[in-house]
Design goal:
By secondary structure, the protein is an alpha/beta fold. It is about 35% helix and about 10% strand. It contains 6 helices and 5 strands, in the order αβαβαβααββα. A hairpin with a 7-residue loop joins strand 4 and strand 5. The protein is globular. The model has no long low-confidence stretch (mean pLDDT about 80).
């Protein structure tokens, strides 16, 4: 499959950053994309939901100005990761906001959304977490089942597992905590 036009000639590295819960903000998106790396951010990071439009306005405005001032620079497109699950009561709002701002890439989380992607004009679907549950992934069976059963409200932000704070499903913290 050829590289989609939206990526061809716009990347300095063949890299798509990871949409990090809590951590990914417009500052990170703008910096990575200006460096030629696709950067997605979770729509749910913009709180409250009305903040998403402000974030997209800032990102698109800064990119337009940067591209006009430095047309020879490679600027990667950005993406918005959508949590496609019944527990996400703002999904339609977020999708409509992304359409209004012509977000170049959408990152989605389930098979039905992958099938629907071409209907809304997408060239590709970007997924990550769902692949943790496949047999080829190096994850324990209990962790795989936890991923399958988890919903957006199960995600917590914690520093209990590493020296830095991370976003994980709460059930994972119980499996990884030391016994003391």
């Amino acid at each position: 499959m050829p590289v989609p036009a939206i990526l061809d000639g716009h990347l300095t590295l063949p890299v798509i950053g990871s949409p990090m819960f809590i951590v990914s903000t417009p500052d990170l998106v703008i910096a990575q994309c200006k460096a030629g790396i696709v950067d997605p951010f979770p729509a749910l990071n913009a709180q409250p939901k009305e903040q998403l439009a402000l974030w997209l306005e800032r990102i698109t405005t800064e990119f337009a100005a940067y591209k006009a001032a430095l047309p020879h620079k490679r600027v990667a497109p950005f993406a918005v990761n959508q949590i496609v699950h019944a527990s996400n009561n703002r999904l339609m709002h977020d999708m409509e906001t992304c359409v209004r701002f012509k977000v170049p890439i959408g990152a989605i989380a389930n098979g039905a959304s992958v099938l629907a992607a071409p209907a809304i004009g997408a060239d590709l679907a970007y997924m990550g977490t769902r692949f943790i549950a496949v047999k080829e992934a190096k994850a324990g069976d209990a962790y795989k089942q936890m991923i399958v059963k988890s919903a957006a409200e199960d995600i917590v932000y914690t520093a209990l597992l590493w020296a830095v704070s991370i976003a994980v499903a709460e059930a994972a913290t119980h499996a990884w905590l030391p016994p003391w």
